[in-house]
Amino acid sequence: MQGFDHRKYRPMAPLALTRRQWPEKTLSQAPRWASVDLRDGNQALLEPMSVAQKRRMWELLVEVGFKEIEVGFPSASQPDYDFVRWLIEENRIPEDVTIQVLVQAREALIQRSFEALRGVRRAIVHVYNSTSTVQRERVFGMDRAGIKAMAVAGAQMVRDEAAKYPDSEWLFQYSPESFSNTEMDYAVEVCAAVMEVWQPSAERPCILNLPATVESSTPNVFADQVEYFCTHLPNREAAIVSLHTHNDRGTAVAAAELGLLAGADRVEGTLMGNGERTGNMDIVTMAMNLYSQGIDPELNLANPDAIIETYTACTGLPVHPRHPWIGELVYTAFSGSHQDAIRKSLARQGEEEHWQVAYLPIDPRDIGRDYQAVIRVNSQSGKGGVAFVMERDHGLQLPRWMQVELAQIVQRESERRSSEVDSATIYQLFCEHFGVSDNPAAMGDYQLDRKGGVDVIAVQWQIDGNSHRLQGEGEGAIAAFIAALEAHGGQRIAVVDYSEHAIGSGTDAEAVAYIQLNVDGRRVSGAARDHDTVSASLRAVVAAYNRVRMLQAQAA
């Protein structure tokens, strides 16, 4: 193909490391995690997060358990500056959480960063400049001495500016940007020079962050680079060696894992790997990798549906159904032989023994997935045929996740009857399992208002024969209604998926809403139709809510 010529590229030269130690090591504990979702992740979005989205993402990161969170680039962005001030002035930073800000090695920007951080209890100031050959020669037009002088000057400015704020506890971090494309002896030289300025100790270390800013080699080469750095850095015990890998070659997680084997202590990354180009290192994937090996990841990932909900709402990015560990389909077997092996393994799995189930590397229940979703019909004609009948005969365009769930119900009914299931029965099964009922809960009149930029709802609610008036608020009618239900019933409810469409046109048109909820770790679906779109969506929530009670009663 014209223009597709591999000869214009050259392979990255491996490091001449003859006594490497990392291949003989194993991981036994979680690294020191640092989330960069609010900075590196945010700057990579087509539309950066709003103030409300940043606050919601911050709350998620704290809830998940991150102790170090890079919150922005306050010297380069007024929204980032204002967000940092909000965190400090509103006392939103837990005692055990340290915020981090990024800044270039420039005096005015460093001063502005410290202004943003005034009054903070403890913070990491992260200064950087690029050290790679191509950046030196083609971007800055400087030699090694000039780039090192820039790094030293930045370190001095950070040190001197921090001295003006003695009431705060400061931790300094330096990144030789494009570390993995820098000569290793020079990377060590620059970082050692920065440490000379900061004078860290084992009791008060600095952080040296090693970015694979553009992933350019296989993970083993990166591990060699990290091991070289760790074994050649003077005063190594006074430095926390951190990794910041990117995913240009698709191996950011592997590079970070091998980098830890090679001597690193800390890992920076984002939820689901959001970031520039192909993204940052995915902390969820790496943490779950550790979990699957019996290692405590020291992050709370027990409810990924709630994490996904916040992530998609704040970033506008979808999560692929095949995303490692938490995608919708990763614990689903379509192959008959896989289904048989899973079924037999589950039957023999003891409660007290280590997990040993074919094709399932972890127990899906650990992260809120049930076995009902593990074994599903692998027939396009199965779910595809059900979906076709529902649309052709009843005008219902079921979302894929409801197609699959309904197909399972139809298949069970077909097996029970040992005969064909006609269109009327399929629709009846749909209504019985996903439609609105008044048992145990029913929604009466409701009032929806818009106040202060959020939706506020008041609902008449009958449950188990008792009447209540619920109130809630949120971004949209569904969010407000769910907030009201959570406040009343004490359950944790997250929207996993939502879909709607119209039936008919003009004044006779109806709206049909489909919703999938996660209620206290259990996924349930509901559907409703109404001439009013909002009413249809709220009634779909009621249908799903009632289905939880139905499933609980069946289990009992």
SSE topology sketch:
Layout: E1 32-35, H1 37-43, H2 51-64, E2 68-72, H3 78-89, E3 98-104, H4 107-116, E4 122-130, H5 133-140, H6 144-162, E5 169-177, H7 184-198, E6 206-212, H8 219-232, E7 239-245, H9 252-261, E8 266-269, H10 283-292, H11 304-315, H12 336-348, H13 380-394, H14 400-417, H15 423-434, E9 441-451, E10 454-463, E11 466-474, H16 477-489, E12 493-503, E13 510-519, E14 522-530, H17 533-555
Parallel strand pairs: 1-8, 2-3, 3-4, 4-5, 5-6, 6-7, 7-8
Antiparallel strand pairs: 9-10, 10-11, 12-13, 13-14
Helix pairs in contact: 2-11, 4-6, 6-7, 7-8, 8-9, 13-14, 16-17
Provide a descriptive summary of the structure in words.
There is one protein chain. By secondary structure, the protein is of the alpha/beta class. It has 4 domains: 21-315, TIM Barrel; 336-373, Helix Hairpins, CATH 1.10.287; 380-434, Arc Repressor Mutant (Orthogonal Bundle); 441-555, Alpha-isopropylmalate synthase LeuA, regulatory domain (Double Stranded RNA Binding Domain), CATH 3.30.160. The protein has 17 helices and 14 strands. The strands form 3 sheets. It has an 8-stranded parallel β-sheet. Helix 2 (51-64) runs antiparallel to helix 11 and helix 13 packs across helix 14. The model is unreliable at 375-382 (pLDDT under 50).
